[in-house]
Amino acid sequence: MLNIKKTVLMLMAIMVGCIALYAAPALAHGEKSQAAYLRMRTLLWYDVDVSTTKLSVNDELTMTGKFYWFYDWPNNIAKPEVAFLNIGIPGPVFIRKASYINGVSGTNSTRFEVGETYEFKVILKARRAARVHMHALMNVKEAGPLIGPGRWVEVTGDMADFTNEVTTLTGETVDLETYGLANAVKWHIFWGVIAVAWLLYWIFQGPILIPRYKRVKMLGDDADDMISATDRMVGLVLLIGTMAVVVWSYYHAHSQFPVTIPLQSGQITIPALPDAARGVNVEMVDARYRVPGRALEFTIKVTNNTNSPIRPGEFTSANVRWMNPEVSKAEPADSHDPVASNGMVYEGGAVMPGQTKLLKVTCTDAAWETYRLAKLIYDPDSRFGGLLFFFDEEGNRSVVALGGPLLPVFI
Amino acid sequence: MSAVHSAITTAEQQQRIYKAFDLIVIPIVVLVIIGANHIHAMLTMGDWDFWIDWKDRRWWVTVTPIALIFFPAALHFILWSNFRLPFGATLATAGLLIGEWVNRIANFVGWAYFPLNMVVPAEIIPMALCLDAILLISRSLTMTGILGSMLWGVIFYPANWVLIAPFHVPIEYNGSMMSLADLIGYNYVRTGTPEYIRIIEEGTLRTFGEDVTPVSAFFAGFISVFAYFLWIGIGKWFAKTTWMKRV
Fold it and tell me: N or C end of chain A: which has fewer CB within 10 A?
């Protein structure tokens, strides 16, 4: 006969065992899990690079790049009224020595303008040995993390060698790795010992549960008589002693640290970079996603107000890059850098200065599927977005944001 | 002649049974309190207690005592009304701190590699000792609720200033003035905890300037009084015995 309890317990044990065996280290940050429209129509990152991908503990690494807040911001996503430039890494493998947005320190949260471009720089110092997939990241209040391109970075060395020394305005040089810890532990131990002594005072009065319970029930309204005068005296000493130590410790800390400030917090607004389009205007005529071919095809009306002929060399969206190698070349920086080196072709030739003409651009790559961008056609509003890079013959670049409704082609 | 005989025939045997009962039940109760209070604390005050750069003069001072008086109040009722034992608050807070230290060392440092000084929990035992002592002296849950709970909220900040004062020393960093706590929060990257998530002195009470701490502390004490009585009621509910009429 089936024993229900044993069967349930066995199933639970098997389930827990399977979960424990299956659990594997996280190697990425779920960047593909975010909805395609969110990645394509919120924050568009480009020119993201790191100064090195191999370094030792205490060495510094600089991440640089630009980001554009897409003009056709989704209605259901909070706008970047409050945002914070961050780094996506598994715990403090690095410490952040400095971060800048358009040259302004990024220690505070920042307000950004939709439709504008900013550049960033983050200086990191390696803290512990690890091989991590490091992302540029922007946290947006009520919207969540908007993840930028990632790079595999390897740190070697011993975390024990890491130091993070700073000098305060009162002239003291401290190591933030351990600063204040011994003092905090000392006080926790002190109060912990008092607490244990207090608990043992009662527990050592003999068996305390059944006998005391029986006496309380037996004495009824007179149960308070179980508390002796000695007990109450101990309570009084405990109360006065505790208050005395609290008051003393408070004033002692004031005398030890006479200059203190409250925690600092504030928000700033940083002016945007000049328009990166540099006189190139683009209007979307139509756009289709060809499901069998994994290709985005869009027709645009381009007006060239620059002094040189221009041609499209790259389309980027959701951190994926489709390159037109006849105009601009790029290769994947590592195994997880989604660059379609031959992913973009176009029809229509160069756009001459002062000319307005139609161009048909096709961006093809398996990344539409592997990066879950093709899911866009199942969104409620089915709109896409991205940045199209035009280049003139001297290599000058115009960056133009474009987007619009996307029609799927299934056959 | 009865077919059932008691296994306890002497006073010594009875004493041994009582001791064995204590030895079995007390560790289990302590573990349950550690686990339950820790979950409660993480869900209610969470980041305020996790991070050194969250411990501000207003919200941390207000939220922590109010959130943490729940278990002491419930245990006060259970242990006092049934056993006349006045250590419920100390048991709850010491248990919580054991759980927190294990969590900080194993999780925050062991797994995530944050420096331990960044995640030291708040000191709450002095508040609990006062609450217990007032219960013992007054032998009244009502007096403890009124006087003890107010004291519980009021002394939280002074009792912790000795721990956090070193982290409030100012520093110039990249052209801004920050406290060392702010700098630690900025240096040690937390991908899921951006700067703006911190709730630092937000609200109109900020217009009180540096006098904001006593106002917050007394407010925390005031609300703790109500929370204490609410959780005495919940402790009463948890302590009641209900027999099922049939399975």
Answer: N
